[in-house]
UniProtKB/TrEMBL annotation:
Keyword Glycoprotein: no
Protein's recorded name: Oxygen sensor histidine kinase NreB
Domain (Histidine kinase) ranges: 326-418
Pfam families linked: HATPase_c (PF02518), HisKA_3 (PF07730)
Record carries keyword Protein biosynthesis: no
First-listed, main subcellular location of the protein, grouped into a coarse class: cytoplasm
Transmembrane segments: 18-36, 48-66, 78-103, 149-170
Gene3D superfamilies documented for this protein: 1.20.5.1930, Histidine kinase-like ATPase, C-terminal domain (3.30.565.10)
UniProt lineage: Bacteria, Bacillati, Actinomycetota, Actinomycetes, Micromonosporales
Described function: Member of the two-component regulatory system NreB/NreC involved in the control of dissimilatory nitrate/nitrite reduction in response to oxygen. NreB functions as a direct oxygen sensor histidine kinase which is autophosphorylated, in the absence of oxygen, probably at the conserved histidine residue, and transfers its phosphate group probably to a conserved aspartate residue of NreC. NreB/NreC activates the expression of the nitrate (narGHJI) and nitrite (nir) reductase operons, as well as the putative nitrate transporter gene narT.
SMART domains: HATPase_c
EC number(s) reported in the record: 2.7.13.3
GO MF annotation, one: phosphorelay sensor kinase activity
Amino acid sequence: MSDASRLEIWRHRADRRLLLMPYLALIGSTVLVIVARDLDLPAQPLPVTLTVAAVTAGWILWMVTLHPEWSDRPRLMATFFAGLLVLIGVLIWCNPLFGFFAWTGYLLTIYTLRGRWRLAGAGGVACFTAVSQVGGYPTLAEAKNWPSFLLVLLFNVGIAVTMTFLAVATSDHAARRAEMLRELTEANDKLAAALTENAGLHAQLLVQAREAGVLDERQRMAGEIHDVLAQGLTGIVTQLEAADQAGDRETERRRHLDTARQLARDSLTEARRSVQALRPQQLTGTALPEALAEVVDGWSEVNGVFAELITTGTALPLLPEIEATLLRTAQEALANVARHAAADRVALTLSYMEDLVTLDVRDDGAGFDPAQSRTDEYEGGYGLTAMRERVQRISGTLAVESEPGGGTAISACVPAIHVAVAA
């Protein structure tokens, strides 16, 4: 059970116990009236007094004790309190000793009235209490008793209104504190539920991040295997086939074998670097335009196709991942040209702009229909997919334009995220 609930239960029990005080005070006052009936006090006959006392007890019993839910009906409770004031006045008329009961009206003031009406109710109870304290209504018939009565009345009203104001302030403070505790408890419950939910979401995110990491690494390795091993093996096979076709021309045959051997060494080196997630060897200590120029020259020499690189804009160092992506895209595009295009010329354009860097690869080869669906058996099917996935991983885009007999143009556009150059 929360603190707010405990406090509310305690206040409810305390209010119910306090509501027993009027009965005890009424019984005690009635006993005093009976015991002191021989004293020289203005009093009505005992049967009348007992009847009024019984009516008063019944009024409180019916309106408050038996119907506690009526406390939420302000007009009904105002009617009850007005009747109670009348009965207190009649009891004091019956005997001034009922002033001991009159003070319990302060308790019922807090319980039944609302707002500023509590102060008015306390003032009314104070008036009847002052009347009982000066000896009852007959005392007021003599003018000489009025100064002392007014002094007693002023004292009672001042004390009653002050104490009622403090009691109301304390009660309101306790109610606000109970409400704050309730809201705080609800907030704590919501926070605990949120923390539990967040813990589950955190665990789910960890699983998803782990799965995404595995998938990303799988895609990276697939791309590296395709870019490095597949291209290298394709080049080696091409050179070996060319060596077989050389026949007795030993010099040409030796050149093709040396090229195949170098391709094997380069592919092995790049495979090791791919496993270690290192930058391509061409970019080690070399700017991207120079590395691309080296790739283009080497490809042109091996395949016997004219190829050139054009660089525009100011070449600034980019993030290693971006430069590696552009280099691998150029290698894959050139490999596709060698395998499928039967081109005579290839042009690469590397353009540095303010926010973007683009790499365009154009050839005058056979071309193809980009809209045609590709099957898994298509030899070059993975090349474009690998390039597009690689470019998209760095928030770039890849566009392909081609038509049968009209050549092919591939354009990779990536963000120009520069890195600082050490002075």
